Amino acid sequence: GSNVLRMSSGIQIKPKTAVQKSKTTPSLPCSPEPAFKPLPKPSDKLNPKTIDPFGAYSRPPSAFAAIYAKGGIPCRLVHGSVKHRLQWECLPETVPFDPLLVILAEGLRETKHPYTFVSKEGFKELLMVEGATEKAIPLLPRLVPVLKAALAHSDDEVFIRGLDALGQLSAVVGPSLNDHLKHLLTNLSRRLMDKKFREKVTVALQKLEQYGGKVS
Q1: Which listed residue, 2, 38, 173, 198, has the most CB atoms within 10 A of its CB?
Q2: Is residue 95 domain-resident?
């Protein structure tokens, strides 16, 4: 019995140490009021089968993964019986778009859970807040190259997430996206030749035309 107790206490020490270290990691502020306290690494409790927080550290594939692993993204995945959802640590309206919207866009290229869901849903929900248009337009020069990289990705699911995000962004910023379309159309036209993506790409192009107006 005493052996079991010693093992349990030994296992609990590591997560506690991880929490203490995470407090020294800067996180994205939510509002002028005290910023949310960094939580334990989301991977500690969300999906231990996919990500082992105690395994050998490997360089994260994107800025999103690095910040998410340190508890710096102000939302986390909540598993539901039917569907998953995001829980924000503070109101999305209070979160600065710069740099969070760009970081979430970076996360669209992730291929591991829960990164894939958090980046996709976080990007969509952030663009739904009041005043999103004014906040997103200045970030277009940084967002477009990131979305272009997602659209050029070899992983089909990454491409679909990038395509959906492009449609969401177009609906919010409207004609402001027109000047950047030349950077995106090549990748869209390549996928248009693929039968399995033809319908989705066509719908996306129609959205760009609808929200961009005659110039697009």
Answers
A1: 173
A2: yes
Sign of CA dihedral 80, 85, 90, 91: negative
Q: What is the CATH number of the domain that holds 78?
A: 1.25.10.10
What is the domain range of residue 110? 61-212
Q: SS3 for 25-74, per residue? A: CCCCCCCCCCCCCCCCCHHHHCCCCCCCCCCCCCCCCCHHHHHHHCCCCC
Please check whether residue 92 lies inside any domain of the structure.
Answer: yes
pLDDT tens figures, 84-96 = 788 898 888 999 9
Strands 85-88 and 75-78: antiparallel
Q: What are phi and psi of 88, to 5 degrees?
A: -85, 140
DSSP string, 82-139: S--EEEESS-GGGS-HHHHHHHHHHHTT--STTHHHHHHHHHHHHTTSTTHHHHHGGG
Query: What is d(CA 46, CA 161) in angstroms, rounded to the nearest whole number?
Result: 22
Nearest to 35 by CA among 102, 90, 75, 99: 90
Name the amino acid, one letter, at 138: P
The model's pLDDT over 118-152, given as tens digits with 9 standing for 90+, comes to: 999 999 999 999 999 999 999 999 999 999 999 99
